Amino acid sequence: MTKLSFPTDYNDRTCYVVAINASLIPLVAGALRFFEKRGTWDSDLDYEQGYAAFAQIQGCMMKCCIDDLIASNDRLYRLMSGALYGTEYSVVSTDPFLVIEPPIGDYHSLYIENEESILGKMENVKQLLQNALNGTVTPLYTDIPGIREQLANMIAALEATGTLDDEMLAQLTEIALLVA
What we know:
About 55% of the residues lie in helices and about 5% in strands. A two-stranded antiparallel ribbon has the order 1-2.
């Protein structure tokens, strides 16, 4: 079996564009694994240089897939960020590359950017319940008294007047306990 020698005139800056059908990329990349074997090369130096060169080729072939994966993850992140926090993204440019503002950061604070987002609506419901049940003044709701206080006042008034039968008082007490 003839062994390969690494070309002495190799220049890693000189490249050619080779059209490979996308469905054949896994097969071509697999065929290039032959050049990763030490026994394929004439010497250890040839092996090291050849291995590095063919690993670069495989990396370039995979870069298309990785770029697609990263772009897909970015789209998914923007979808989730928009739905959960209400972050609004806009396309700034598509030529030569897609540029979307604001850029995706390393983390997202729990700040709700839009009340129409999922977390914004959940915060709205939480404030409504706090106000309706307890009479708590919240940024969105200020109605006082809450259901608990109204039931307690009604029970106290009915007990004071003595016109409440025991069954009705028991039901109001039960409602107040369920709400609490």
